[in-house]
Amino acid sequence: MLNLHMRYAHEEYDENGVLTACSVDIPEHFNFGYDVVDEIATAEPNRRAMLWCNPEGEEHLFTYGDMKRWSDKTANFFKAQGIGKGDYVLVILRRHYQFWFVATALAKLGAVMVPATFMLKEHDLEYRLNKAEIKAVVCTSVGDIAQVVDNVVDAGLAPSVHTRILVNGAGGGLTPHDESGNLVFPEGEAVGEVLSGEVGVCAASAKREGWVDFNSEVRTTPETFEKVETFAADPMLMYFSSGTSGNPKMVLHDASYALAHYATAKHWHNADPEGIHFTIADTGWGKAVWGKYYGQWLMESCVFTYDFDRFHGGEILSLIGKYGITSLCCPPTMYRLMMSENIDEYDLSSLNYSTTAGEALNPDLFEFWKKHTGLTIFEGFGQTETPLVVANTLNTHPKPGSMGKPIPLFTVEIQREDGTRCNTGETGEICIKMDPRPAGLMVGYYRDPEKTAAAMHDGWYHTGDTAWCDEDGFFWYVGRNDDVIKSSGYRIGPFEIESVLLEHDAVRECAVTGVPDPVRGKAVKATIVLADGFKPSEDLTKELQHWVKRQTAPYKYPRIIDYVDELPKTVNGKIRRVQIRQADEKTAEGLV
Fold first, then answer.
1. Distance from first CA to last CA of the chain, Å, rounded?
2. How many angstroms separate the CA atoms of 124 and 41, rounded?
3. Is the pLDDT confidence value at 396 over 90?
4. Does the pLDDT of residue 572 top 70, yes or no?
5. What global pTM score does this model have?
6. What proportions of the chain, in percent to the nearest 5, are helix, strand and coil?
7. How far apart are CA 334 and CA 328, in angstroms?
8. What is the pLDDT of residue 289?
9. DSSP assignment, residue 177?
10. How far apart are CA 271 and CA 277, in angstroms?
């Protein structure tokens, strides 16, 4: 092991092994592809980098040597397609192993990767392709997203797109089953286990008019790639980040962003260089590079990737024992779905560390997981615009429900609207000091100086997330500024009410939002998925309302309770409160 991350990081610890100070040196020419992937590959080519599998039965173990070889071949292929330094490339690859080849290759070329979800529709895609002036699209053959791309590009609605590259997704968990539960592979198509035959990686082609086939081209491309001069300050990665109103913002990161994630992996995920870390995230979302790429490989660790479509708690639990996964990170919603399984039937003996992010962690879930696995769930907080910022780090003792303390890489304050620091127990906005600009903080919102100035001013980056700090320095999440419900002069955070509701036996999942109210401004509404054995009724609604009144301030109780079969979520399992709010606003306006 090279201890590669210590070439860039400086750390101090207390007597209990808790990180108390750290900083990151950013070399002028830092490039994640050359300085991390290739460096490890040269020193230890057989070190494990990723264990990848899918429900179709395909399985691959990639070493760092493999990742260097395939990323160099991919870089040569992209170069031949006219992709080079400064070009913006939209990447829609679900959880296919080719994503790691593509991401590393684009870094080596100095091109900018723009990951996106396969759930986009024509309107979403047209906006992204034009706003970022996307030159090339690298897309999965799985599902209908390639058709969505064609609908936009063939109609002449995205003139900047010169190249479309199609990746055979090997089923991606979408292969249907027959009545006996056996996979039914499409006639004439090579998917699943057959791809692990004699040829193996990138074995099967994907043909579509107007597209270049990634797998067949990369297989025949030379392995020797001529290094391109790049700089740490060069743009490397951009995400479209949706808010509650208006079009998505383009969050731009330079190449130094990767270095800041060493703290994410080392001090939060507890990434073990000899272990296997599993972050459950689709590559279209920022959490994927948080937990499946930058930090873990800086720590010379191995990541686990399961290329599935829909989350099933029992399926995920079974993978932990089968593959010897040592650390796990997923949103609270996914932990809760695993709670609904008979968790004690699964072999979780290899698992020694658990983390969560994306939503605040409810205390009941914290206690359940500890009771049945013996493991504490360490919560963390960050954004698309940042790496990990606040967390319960390694060797600390979390308070159930708290997201922890600021990572020493950042100076973080909870501030009032006038920029003054909040008192203990007072809710305000989480703000990060920018002078000097810390490693990992976004460059800004691409081509939007007004939104950048609104978020980054007076020496601070204003996250838009609210919290309060207790007397011991622990942060407690309240919600997005847009999530906070202003009712009859009170500011009500949804998470507190959700936590109380989730402690009731009848509630499996819930989301609390504000709905327009002519008297109060907003009224508190709870959208609830009931646990098995419970049915909606007026009596149950009253019981749940009284339950909340007894356990928190009475003005916070949900005046409206709506029962649904499922909550709207992102592909990574994060509840989309904004979708619920938008539907309620349309109803209030008489539009639906």
1. 60
2. 38
3. yes
4. no
5. 0.88
6. 30, 25, 45
7. 11
8. 97
9. B
10. 6
The continuous run of DSSP H or E covering 548 comes out as helix 538-551
Residues 379, 356: contact at Cβ < 8 Å?
A: yes
What is the mean pLDDT of the segment spanning 516-521? 78
Give the per-residue pLDDT at 415: 97
Contact 225, 232 (CB under 8 A): no
pLDDT, one tens digit per residue, over 9-39 is 999 999 999 999 999 999 999 999 999 999 9
Are the CB atoms for 60 and 307 separated by under 8 Å? Answer: no
The Cα–Cα gap between 107 and 114 comes to: 12
Among residues 222, 185, 218, the alpha carbon closest in space to that of 201 is found at 218
Reference 214, options 366, 96, 56; nearest CA is: 96
In percent, the amount of the chain with pLDDT more than 90 equals: 76
Q: How far is 441 from 435, CA to CA, in rounded Å?
A: 12
* pLDDT beyond 50 at 592: no
Task: Name residue 414's amino acid.
Answer: I
Beta-strand pair 112-115/88-92: parallel
Return the amino acid letter for 17.
G
Mean pLDDT of 303-316: 94
| Residue-averaged pLDDT of the chain | 92
Closest CA to 326 of 264, 369, 244, 271: 271
Cα dihedral 279, 281, 286, 292 sign: positive
Residues 6+ apart with CB under 8 A from 45: 63, 64, 65, 68
CA distance 54 to 94: 12
Give the DSSP letter string of 324-350.
Answer: T--EEE--HHHHHHHHTS-GGGS--TT
SS3 assignment, position 168:
coil
User: Which one is predicted more confidently, 144 or 516?
Assistant: 144
User: How confident is the model over 266-285, as pLDDT tens digits?
Assistant: 999 999 999 999 999 999 99
List the structure tokens of 588. 């209030």
Tell me the per-residue pLDDT of 110-133, one tens digit each, with 9 for 90 and over.
999 999 999 888 988 999 999 999
DSSP string, 370-439: HHHHS--EEEEEE-TTSSEEEE--TT--PPTT--BEE-TTS-EEEE-TTSPBPPTT--EEEEEE-SSPPT
Residue 99 confidence (pLDDT): 98
Residue 448: CB partners within 8 Å, gap ≥ 6?
A: 249, 250
Is the Cα dihedral 350, 353, 358, 359 positive or negative?
positive
Dihedral, 71, 76, 82, 86 alpha carbons, nearest 10: 50
In 93-135 the beta strands, taken as DSSP E runs, fall at 112-115
Q: What is the pLDDT of residues 172-218, one digit of tens each?
A: 999 888 888 888 887 777 777 777 766 789 998 999 999 999 999 99
Token pair recorded at residue 332: 């609270």
Beta-strand ranges (E) seen in 116-220 are: 136-140, 163-167, 212-213
CB burial of 424-448 (b: ≥16 within 10 Å; e: otherwise) equals: eeebbbbbbebeeebbbbbbbbbeb
378 beta partners: 355
